[in-house]
Amino acid sequence: MVADTQAEGVIDNPRLLLTLKRGCAGKLNRGAAFFRRVLLVSIDAALANARFCVPEYVCVQSLGGELVLLNVNTGYYFGLDEQGKAFFEALTSGPTLGEALEGLHEQYDVSPEQLTADFLELSDKLRQHGLVVNAAEA
Q1: What are 46-76's pLDDT values in tens digits?
Q2: CA dist 29 to 87, 90, 106, Å?
Q3: How many structural domains are present in the chain?
Q4: Closest by Cα among 93, 105, 135 to 17
């Protein structure tokens, strides 16, 4: 669900992933329309505020623009194309999941709903296979 708003700051909603900040839209080349509204998605605040990292038992190797992740404990490996690599780097670069997603919205010319769904699907798969973990639990 997308709701238009003129508010500034955080809306008191535990299911809120992204917040609108006045003035953001003028600074962006792509996705400016998104920053004029607030995107609500069906994830809880704990996930949106979580930070993720690569555990020590996962090997990460870049191969010609792609990324290969190998969980040496399970033998599970995962290949990521250029977009998947960008998603992975955003997820593991330090900001919260919500902040990483907000940053990706600035980079990709795709609907906010589709980008959010794709990002959450990939992050869920990576977590399920132990390729990324919640930094608070590492």
Answers
A1: 888 999 999 999 999 998 889 999 999 999 9
A2: 19, 19, 8
A3: 1
A4: 105
Q: How many CB atoms lie within 10 A of CB 9?
A: 9
- Taken as a whole, the chain contains a residue count of 138
Q: Which residues of the chain have pLDDT under 50?
A: 1-41
CATH at 32: 3.90.930.60
Q: Give the domain range for residue 105.
A: 2-134
Global pTM value = 0.68
End-to-end CA distance of the chain: 33
CA dihedral 61, 64, 67, 68 (to 10 degrees): -60
Distance CA 66, CA 74 (A): 21
Instruction: Provide CB contacts within 8 A for 104, sequence distance 6+.
Output: 86, 87, 90, 115, 119
Q: Can you spell out the DSSP letters for 62-106? A: EETTEEEEEETTT--EEEE-HHHHHHHHHHHSSS-HHHHHHHHHH
SS3 content of the chain, % helix, strand, coil (to 5): 35, 20, 45
